[in-house]
Description:
The complex is a heterodimer of chains A (275) and B (308). With 275 residues, chain A is mainly alpha-helical.
Amino acid sequence: xxxxxxxxxxxxxxxxxxxxxxxxxxxxxxxxxxFNASKLVTVWGGWSxxxxxxxxxxxxxxxxxxVSLKIAFISATLAAVLGTMAGFxxxxxxxxxxxxxxxxxxxxxxxxxxxxxGLSLLLLFVAMESLFGWPAGRGMTTxxxxxxxxxxxxxxxxxxxxxxxxDATLEEAAMDLGAKPSSLFFLITLPLISPAIVSGWxxxxxxxxDDLVIASFVSxxxxxxxxxxxxxxxxxxxxxxxxxxxxxxxxxxxxxxLAAVIIMRRQNKVEMPQN
Amino acid sequence: MMNSTLKNSTLVSLLLKINLGRLFVILVxxxxxxxxxxxxxxxxxxxxxxxxxxxxPPYSPIFEWDATDAYATLKITLGNYLFLFEERxxxxxxxxxxxxxxISTIITLFVGFPIAYVIAKSSSTMRSILLALVILPxxxxxxxxxYAWMGLLKKNGLVNELFMSIGLIDQPIQMLxxxxxxxxxxxxxxxxxxxxxxxxxxxxxxxNLIEAAQDLGAKPYQAFCLxxxPLAKPGIIAGCLLVFIPAVGEFVIPxxxxxxxxxxxxxxxxxxxxxxxxxPMASAxxxxxxxxxxxxxxxxxxxxxxxx
Lengths: 275, 308
């Protein structure tokens, strides 16, 4: 590298470093203050776990967390199944009528503003209820349907890009050896794309846990999710319990991301010899 | 008659030819998305043409069935749309959302570009570490990351305390509940959406091209403008759209960080729906927002097609 490019990269490194600082400073401040004994956010009153204790004694938050976890688990699982189907259809099924339509529908929820998705799903559920009597009222079911719909898109994209980067020779060999389409899928393709499905599931799970806007539209009374409870608490001001909750969630997500990275890396290593 | 029987018989033979398993795999995700993504927009459009009434559900029916004369009347109104264009408030909200979204997208690009560039050009181990560092906040709750800024930007928050302790300011500045906080919040939360597509295109870029440009006498900034930027264009476009589109409809950030005078259309829709309980009006707001965003969304889709 010539000296000029080195000079340029010094500037670049400094700005990138500032960028990373910008990304992490608020999170780190939040974690530190979750251990603050003082109720005032800026006054440091020594280290304490009292907000964690208060958090676990807060029934409203604990109930909402349980509701959110259930919803996230079911929606992520449904989205993983449907999204894998959609991703597979888009990259392995050749041309068929409606393929462009499906491709459009799959990617559109990714960029649609949440307020529009939330409003449109709620109005759909209300119209469905008056037409068919189902879903009766809003609650877990409607949130799960809504979350599955937008998570499906993420899974489909992850699975599709995995399939696109995958060498098709194994699948072709299995076909040549007379494997039926179903056994070809379950014995060859599925194991090969399983890391993509796992990371799609994890992504869906966190997206569902995180969603405030869509859930607010399609939930019914008594079905507040965790973000809905946090939002209503936070709107009234900064609450130290939420700091503790945020820290726990950040730790959980960090562990999940690390696990996902390790799974993906191991899978890539296994495949190296083929390429 | 002839035609329809012909159609039916071809349909049947077609169905027999098609592998049922294949059909199932194709139809299930398609029907799901049709029912829960496409049809809802038709419902929103329908309701935007009705009037708000105090009833359950709170909008007037579009078809009215007259039992005595046995005929149906179609009752639609463009009143909601007319109101949208007559009231300065809504127009201002659309314009101000687009303005806020454009400015924050540009800032995000400037903040994200060096990060993406450094990641793309670092060694492979360093690259996966840095990428994980970018993705981690993306996986961390959006709401909690916005909330983290509330603690920093408050009157007696960390930023004010820090600035006062180093003597930069004498008394706390109002940062929370201002447009500044909204820009900051959008840039902060959407930064990973900018970095990731930028990284993908920059990673593919051949560094030799820059060296060649410099060997031929280009100054660093010339090499950057004439070589790097054009090569990074797909990533820049994708990143900007990924930030711009959701930012236009943003609700959480203006609600938590913005002031009462921060006007964003996502928040207007939310208030129209939850506070005024005017479902037809909220629907009309959504339809116009969608029309504003159709261009960028289609562009995004086409970009995706090229990238795959």
